[in-house]
UniProtKB/TrEMBL annotation, chain A:
Recorded superkingdom: Bacteria
Entry protein name: Sigma-70 family RNA polymerase sigma factor
All residue ranges annotated as the RNA polymerase sigma-70 region domain in the record: 29-97
Keyword Metal-binding found: no
Organism, scientific name: Limnovirga soli
UniProtKB/TrEMBL annotation, chain B:
Record keywords, A-Z: Coiled coil, Membrane, Transmembrane, Transmembrane helix
Coiled coil: 30-57
Protein name in the entry: Tetratricopeptide repeat protein
Top-rank taxon: Bacteria
Transmembrane segments: 92-109
Amino acid sequence: MQVVRDYTDQDLVAALKDERKTDDAIRFIYRQYYGLLENYVINNSGSADDAADMIQETILAFIEIIHKDAYRGEASVKSFLYTITRNLWLSELRKRSSADTRNKNFETAKDQVEDGMVQHLITREYYQQIQDLFEKLGDKCKQLLMLVYYEDLPMKDIVAQMPDYQNEQVLRNKKYKCMKQLEQLINENKDLKTQFKNALKNAR
Amino acid sequence: MQDNFTNETNIEQLNMFMDGDMPAAELTQLEQLIAANVNLQDRLENLQLAKSAIKSLGMQQRIKALHTEYMATTKATATVIKPNFGSTVSKVFRIAAVFVVVLLTYGIYQFSTTNTNNVFNDNYMAYQLPVNRGAETIATIDGLYQSNNYTAVIANFTANNNKQQKDYFLAALSYLQTDNAAKAIENFSTLQQLNSKSNDKYFADETDYYLAMAYIKAGNITAAKKQLDIIKGNKQHLFYQKASEISPLTLTMLTWKQ
């Protein structure tokens, strides 16, 4: 049976930094704040599906901000999540209302976003573009890179999960090749990176 | 080595550097090359961004899975509520059904046990003549009635050639007491006619009620009901309360059984 527990803001932040406790902490965010955040989106011209997307983005942004130690606890977690959702949703509405979406990719308005969040949101948008490139890789590459960089598993454990590769060295070589392939795709899309860098510069 | 690093093949070495897989012997030299080469810095940055984007994608997928779990739980809760609502409704219907069955059973029992005799017995109360404490002697028919000698009352009444309203009343009551409902009706009706012609109404309210009882005893429920309705139409009637205690449903059941 799953234990349901409550968190203080401090406990929640600590749990989100701890890999083993992250799932329960995210579940808590869902239980505690989903209704609030969903209401915000729905009351501002969004649908329940929009709200679902925004809330997932909000939680992701929140976790990444915490991992970068950029959440200083000056606002409560509730206020902070609300602010992230508001900024993400306003940004999304701006994109939707624009005929030229591509040029609006990095238009997260500085005046609408709290300090420290602008850079994060701009980076998130660039990550999404890299993730689109990542999707172009083969399944083996995607699986391997996820196991290495997200799961952070040692090579010996990955060998057990990917028996097609005889040993750790073969797997390591495969990883380098996959990353080289991805890096090349990024390098071929220099414009995106330039836009990203300019947006970051303007946001400062 | 610097030139080599501009080749895409050596992106692998930058990757090794990023992941801490670079042999210590080559590490310092590579660090110096990166520091001196903007292109290498840019390519290394590409790798670092790729790594961060992959991490972010992993977290995104994890949140998505938890999102699905949350939505499923929410739906499951809603689904649980639905049968509960259904079961509440069905519980209400079940209670209602039991109530209907109980009601029907009671109705059937009432219908099967209700008859003119028990309705009569439940509502009939022998009439007590008022005692005239000042009178030194009690008129013969009154005395016979007070001593519950109903046969003698009837005999006295039959032999009487100068019958008064009071005689008809006591005779009618005595017929009722001796289970002769027809004669009771006949005499109560005669008394009603006499009362209607006379300014001196003798036992009018009593006659109304006991005539109704006589009709019940005789099984003439329609007439009994009509008589009781007359009484119930007058709140000042002496027998208003008594007449109201006889349920119309009981009378209807008696009608069905006729």
